[in-house]
Automatic annotation (TrEMBL):
Domain (FAD-binding PCMH-type) ranges: 35-216
Keyword Kinase among UniProt keywords: no
Entry-linked InterPro entries: FAD-bd_oxidored_4_C (IPR004113), FAD-bd_PCMH (IPR016166), FAD-bd_PCMH-like_sf (IPR036318), FAD-bd_PCMH_sub1 (IPR016167), FAD-bd_PCMH_sub2 (IPR016169), FAD-linked_Oxase-like_C (IPR016164), FAD-oxidored/transferase_4 (IPR051264), Oxid_FAD_bind_N (IPR006094)
A Pfam family it matches: FAD-oxidase_C
Classification via PANTHER family: BLL6224 PROTEIN, D-2-HYDROXYGLUTARATE DEHYDROGENASE, MITOCHONDRIAL
Signal peptide: none
Species of provenance: Undibacterium seohonense
Record protein name field: FAD-binding oxidoreductase
Keyword hit for Flavoprotein: yes
Family: Belongs to the FAD-binding oxidoreductase/transferase type 4 family.
Keywords: FAD, Flavoprotein
């Protein structure tokens, strides 16, 4: 492999071929520090052309490739296996803003651009790029598209897929497909763009992206609401859609366990209510009208919700600081759960109409199998995406609890499938859920996926072992 490595050095510069174990370490460990892979080298190209040349070298020398953006994935999709045969092609140096087209409401960027930087560039021209994630300061847009990331504004703006108009991709045959078209209508054959979005780097490497921009809202309205059941939260969501229409931007569900973990581990965040409730909703409106109009719309919604007895209490943020405190409580749940100890995470989606029944049914099954287990349930109820996480009983030995992970996953995923849901809403499959996929995808679906993989990656070098 020395000749291969020498050719890589001549292509991208010796300083961008990382062989030292200490230099490689950040690229080999997953975001939650559960798994560490091994790589032949970390390759850091600075252009699409360099990526293509590296892919051709990998074809010539039969070297597997693991494409990597910000390495913030949660299903081991962006790290190599333990064989040490693969190279990681990091896109961190492909981080340029290529063009902003205000008239077309688009921004064209390198795939290695951080999500936060794209948001900031849009802000500079008084526009909005609405994809918003807790990891936005670290994740890259190429990775967001590779997993079809969701976030907190899907209800109004859609997933990453809906926010992307065009792609530039280095294929598994080392060819460059330039699909950077900022078109909203283009019915000229198969939609190649959608094949690469959500494929987790198994079909090619995304190197450039055309994204939709939106006019920046003039005002926001934020409310934190307490409820006694998820059934009431679903009714509140229906009511909010009727009252707020397109202004309804975020609708986040938080159960009492989730919120108390945040207050326990992040006491700097102010409590909204002195009493506790079974569930809470964090609701956000964004409007092109005045703040007074947004506040009035929220007030009318909450009044109607009280009259219908869907909610027990509500607070409308009357300052930016209060709104930020509300969102900090929501966005700190995962960090609080990590501070509490090891836990078992599930990223599922369900038809909104069955969410309440699923939570009750799955929760009862888990309580019967593991008495005292704590359900940390939160997520984007507005689009049916729940983070249905399980923490051990207070005082339990976490390692013992995690030995039952397979049984817990089976309960949750079987129930998800029973209720017509998906075992992965926005995190992807990677290797973590690969075996689970075969349980819930039909043989027809799996065969079609294998056919696409063989056709588009004939050398089987593009993130092999992930998804399929």
């Amino acid at each position: 492999m020395q000749n291969f490595l020498n050719l890589c050095k001549s292509t991208i510069g010796e300083e961008n071929v990382l062989l030292d174990a200490q230099q490689q370490a950040p690229y080999l460990q997953d975001w939650r520090q559960r798994e560490v892979g091994k790589a032949l080298a970390i390759l850091r190209p600075a252009s699409t052309e360099q990526v293509a040349k590296l892919v051709q070298l990998c074809i010539d020398y039969a070297v597997p490739i693991v494409p990597q953006g910000g390495n913030t994935g949660l299903v081991f999709g962006s790290i190599p296996d333990h064989s040490g045969k693969a190279v990681v092609i990091s896109l961190q140096r492909l981080n340029k803003i290529r063009q902003i087209d205000v008239a077309n409401n688009t921004i064209t960027v390198d795939a290695g651009c951080l999500l936060q930087n794209i948001q900031a560039e849009a802000e500079q021209v008084d526009m909005l790029f609405p994809l918003s994630l807790a990891s936005e300061g670290s994740c890259s847009i190429g990775g967001n598209l590779s997993t079809n990331a969701g976030g907190t504004a899907v209800l109004r703006y859609g997933n990453a897929r809906e926010l992307c108009l065009g792609l530039e991709v280095v294929t598994a045959n080392a060819e460059i497909w330039n699909g950077l078209r900022g078109l909203r209508k283009d019915n000229t054959g198969y939609d190649l763009r959608d094949l690469f979005i959500g494929a987790e780097g198994t079909l090619g490497i995304i190197t450039g992206v055309v994204l939709k921009l939106f006019p920046k809202p003039r005002s926001y309205g934020t409310a934190f609401i307490s409820l006694t059941s998820i059934g009431h939260a679903v009714k509140l969501l229906t009511l909010a859609k009727q009252h707020c229409h397109a202004n309804l931007t975020g609708f986040e569900l938080i159960n009492s366990v989730s919120l108390e973990l945040v207050h326990q581990h992040f006491p700097q965040y102010q409590r909204i209510f002195q009493h506790t409730s079974q569930f809470y909703v964090l609701l956000e409106l964004s409007s092109y009208e005045s703040e007074e109009k947004a506040y009035q719309q929220l007030e009318q919604l909450i009044t109607a919700a009280f009259e219908a007895e869907f909610i027990t209490d509500a607070v409308i943020a009357n300052s930016i600081a209060q709104a930020k405190n509300c969102w900090a409580l929501r966005e700190s749940i995962s960090s609080a759960q990590a501070k509490e100890g090891k836990n078992i995470k599930h990223d599922i989606s369900l038809p909104i109409s069955v969410v309440a029944d699923f939570v009750d049914d799955a929760g009862q099954c888990l309580e019967q199998a593991f008495p005292g287990c704590r359900m940390v349930t939160f997520g984007h109820l507005g689009d049916g995406n729940l983070h249905f996480n399980v923490s051990p009983p207070i005082g339990d030995v976490h390692e013992f609890f995690l030995t039952h992970q397979a049984q817990i996953n089976r309960i949750v995923h079987d129930k998800t499938h029973q209720y017509g849901g998906s075992i992965s809403a926005e995190h992807g499959i990677g290797t973590l859920k690969k075996e689970e996929l075969t349980r819930y995808k039909s043989s027809v679906e799996l065969q079609l996926m294998h056919t696409i993989k063989r056709a588009m990656d004939p050398h089987n070098i593009m993130n092999p072992g992930k998804i399929l």
